[in-house]
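Chapter review: from sequence to fold.
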Amino acid sequence: MQKLRKTFQKQSPGRSRRMYGLRERNMVAAYKESDRRSKIKGTDKGLEFLRILELRLDNVIYLAGLAPSRAAARQFVTHGHVKVNGKKTNIPSLEVKEGDSIELKTAKLAPSEKLFATPAWIETKGESCKVASLPIRDDIDEGIKENLIIEFYSR
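The C-alpha cell string follows.
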C-alpha cells in the first residue's frame, strides 16, 4: 500500500500543477483545450496537454534560462519586463507559437549562469530566445505521466 501511495504522489496532477505554478481551474481549462485540439488534429491528448503547459510564456522564459525559476519568470511577465515579437505583454499564460521571439527588456534581470541546458526546441541568444519548433514528448520529460493526469481530469 505504501509503495502504491508513493507512486501516485510522484505522478499526481497536483505535482504538475505545483511545478507549473497553476491553479486547478487552469489545469481543467488546459485539459479541455487539449481534448478539443486532439479531436481536431487527430493527435494524442496527453501530448497536446503537455504542449499547452510547455508553451506558456512564463515556462518558455524559464526554460530558456532567462529567469531563475518559473515564479520569477511569471513575475517578469506581469511586471512588463518581457516583449513577445517586439510587443510588451503582461500575460504569463500567453501561449507562444512556433517562430515567436521573446526578449527581456531589462538585461540585468537575466541570471548570470544557466542552471540547466536549454531544450532543443528553444533557440537562446543573449537576453532573447525564439521558439524554433514545437516540443515533442522526449523534450518535455519532467517525470510527468500525462496519461494519469488525462485520466484524472476526464472524470
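Two observations follow directly from the output. The chain has one domain: 2-153. Confidence is low (pLDDT under 50) at residues 1-10.
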